[in-house]
Amino acid sequence: xxxxxxxxxxxxxxxxxxxxxxxxxxxxxxxxxxxxxxxxxxxxxxxxxxxxxxxxxxxxxxxxxxxxxxxxxxxxxxxxxxxxxxxxxxxxxxxxxxxxxxxxxxxxxxxxxxxxxxxxxxxxxxxxxxxxxxxxxxxxxxxxxxxxxxxxxxxxxxxxxxxxxxxxxxxxxxxxxxxxxxxxxxxxxxxxxxxxxxxxxxxxxxxxxxxxxxxxxxxxxxxxxxxxxxxxxxxxxxxxxxxxxxxxxxxxxxxxxxxxxxxxxxxxxxxxxxxxxxxxxxxxxxxxxxxxxxxxxxxxxxxxxxxxxxxxxxxxxxxxxxxxxxxxxxxxxxxxxxxxxxxxxxxxxxxxxxxxxxxxxxxxxxxxxxxxxxxxxxxxxxxxxxxxx
Length: 389
Ligand code: CMC
Description:
mainly alpha; single chain; Citrate_synthase_bac-typ; Citrate synthase; tricarboxylic acid cycle; Citrate_synthase; acyltransferase
């Protein structure tokens, strides 16, 4: 009632109070529960960071062991669920398979759907963390026509995911520790980012008291889009196109600046960061070293760095404060690890999952939460009479 404010895209409107992630976009600062992202990337592990985001404090050694053990024991999918994968077209995008798989969890686990039952929320939390990598790897295996592998409880979280994705039953899969460490670190960098599009979606769906699987499946779909998580795939495709067509990078940048055919420099710009994205800074530092250690040099890295150099000196980008975001360099690492381009956004989803869970739980436990129900400014016809016939 009364006048409503118009804020398209929620540029100035906070939808909630949150104590999980702090961002200062002008300074390029990102902290989870107060801990700077660079320190977590350096010293923590993905499961420890997940615990921190979800429960608010770093775990003790015993708490982390228990948490890890719990997650490890829930990595298998219900056998019946495998039939889903066979039903999708082979060429389906794995993000679509992933969101369907997460949604399907609420059909298999009807014992953990009550958002106000602490024990049920606990078990859904563990099930999601445990099963998302399994669903993701099965989406990939189905796409390439290889058998799905059961999880191996002797392996760590990331190692198990790598084996399920790249292993085959006929051979023992040797996890490359360099790859596992690099992927774990990338997951930490993606683990939360306050009220971004997918997280806001998770909260909005959850605010109707829909269960956690339903809410997070909606989040996966929001992440799919190229302006959000889908940007990591779009960046690599952009670099490959420029290379394949032999386009001069300067010419490509002219196209971007002239907004020709709506072309953007994918992996650049951010709603909140008006300075270098601190996650991108860490990935940029890592990318060359990781490619060198893996002995997988990639000319696309030089192309990407060349595009960044042009952008950072160009008025168009400087005036608009456009810097590389987290998606600009990650794809080059994923590619070197052997992931097909379509899987890049799936990797983002695995990384972002603890953030979605933490935010959903904070929302459901906050007595101030109300169902999300934005208003509108109506621009249609005023009242008119239905014509007499
Ligand atoms: N290339 C060229 N111009 C751009 C870009 C870009 N990547 N990003 C923004 N601009 C321009 C935009 O055209 C606008 O220009 P003008 O003032 O002349 O109209 C100005 O910069 C402001 O941009 P905006 O679109 O109003 O900003 P926004 O906050 O609504 O959008 C964004 C943020 C991330 C969607 C946008 O920067 C973008 O589309 N970037 C490319 C996609 C991308 O990399 N997304 C990943 C985001 S970070 C991690 C994640 O969420 O996955």
